[in-house]
Amino acid sequence: MSAWSRLSDHLDENSEGYGPLRGTLGAGRIGMIWLAANLVVTTLLTGTLFVPGVSWPTALAMIVLGTLIGGAVLVLVGNMGTRTGLATMSLTKGSFGLRGSFLPVAANVVILMGWSWVQAMLAGVTVNFLVAQATGYSNPVLFSVLCQALVVALAVLGHEGIARVEPWLAVVILGIMAWVFTVAFTSYPVADFAALPVDPGAGWSPIAVLDVVIATAISWTVLSAEFNRLARRQSAGMIGSGAGYVLSTVAAMSLGATAVAYVVLDGGEAVGFDPTVLVAAFGAPLAVVVFLSVMATNTMVVYGMVSSVVDLTPSRRLRFLPTALVLGAVSVLGSTRLGLLDQFTEFLVLIGSLFIPVFAIMLVDYYVVQRGAYAADILRGRGGRYWYRGGVNPAAVAVWVLGAVCSLVLTYVLPSPVGATIPTFVLSAALYLLWALAAKRIVPGRPVQRHLAEAGRTGTDGAGARDGAAAPERTGGPCTVGAVGAAGRPEEAADAPR
User: Fold this and answer.
1) Second-level CATH architecture of 26-344
2) CB burial string 62-79: b at 16+ within 10 A, e below
3) 320-334 and 3-14 helices cross at what angle (nearest 10)?
4) Would you say 301 and 116 are in contact if contact means Cβ atoms under 8 Å apart?
5) pTM of the model
6) Contact 87, 240 (CB under 8 A)
7) How far apart (Å, rounded) are the C-alpha atoms in residues 290 and 44?
8) What whole-number distance in Å separates Cα of residue 327 and Cα of residue 332?
9) Percent residues over pLDDT 90 in the chain
10) Which of 56, 88, 177, 384 could be stapled to 225 by a disulfide with Cβ–Cβ 3.0 to 4.6 Å?
């Protein structure tokens, strides 16, 4: 066999696969996965957007509140992955239909592509800043392309290795973050940060900050079931993901808000979402944080994007390697558009508009309409209880569109005093529930959710009824974002969550 064929076969054999995955990890390991994943430069730089648009204490308060609200959605969607063994986008088949789920999957690929562009640009701009200081040569587009090309190569050849070292990178990043906090608070007292004047012209309000922080959690929720289906039990997944996500997000965003406040106190200009401003203030150690976090997280983003595409259906499976190269080429070309960094806030608004309704629908469908149990029909290519009309649930699609429009209207046309994210979530959840009640779709009784990996062994549908669809059981193995590798050697299989 040629080297191409050997590599292609290896990637196909070890990529995520379509069926459910049985988790084996405890709360501590799940917490470390989330901590490592979210200690990323984009989260840190999001915090730099808020100050001095709002006061430093207000920014910190909204960061904590928004992280808790958005984190609740993240944990509940992640728990669906623990209970079923399915990835987030596979779970959309339950509410949107076996074919209707292609719509949120397509949106997810677009969003992940956007994340890969943004992170590559941030790494490239940072490397360019250091090179320009040392040599005088400046070409940020070139360095962005080189960084993204390295990411694509790692996604194809070394994502498992990156996943294993990512928790150790998180320890390094935490250490440098602690050093930045120390520099800031030993240079100026906390009272000076609290007294920093607010700049109304920056265009921020506490509610706007809250919306962006919640949108950040929503952007991570697209991967929540991927991570949390690795958990041994529901409690491990919920505690680990809740603690890991909240701690990493609050730490990273608070550092960004504190760092930009330090720059202002030191006589500099507050330029949001620009890593070079912070590197100039705190030196090369912060540049190391930017580069390492991008290499680790962006590798898993690209790998997850490819896996989302190749695992769309259980039957006609695309080959991993050519798909990775095509999407990788698009991600490299997109990394040249540095002007997109100036539109990062709009990018987060787009994520919220697209996925807040999706997750509202998913949560209502699973926990209320389906009574917390999906059947093995969700693993089929066609037919069964999730076929709806030609494979699409028109009600879910309609509610999704209405929710997205509501979010955009409340953001850009009729700004809401309570923001856009919370009203959009409530409206989408209420509309979907009303449809389920009117259509008499709510499942009677209290079906038991059996892990869908058991359907292949027992011939049951995962909720107690017989079914012919079999799901391959998978224990461990690389997950969509490499979290199994990050967690280390799989432990012994445990009982399925009830």
Assistant:
1) Orthogonal Bundle (1.10)
2) bbbebbbbbbebbbbbbb
3) 90
4) yes
5) 0.85
6) no
7) 9
8) 9
9) 49
10) 88
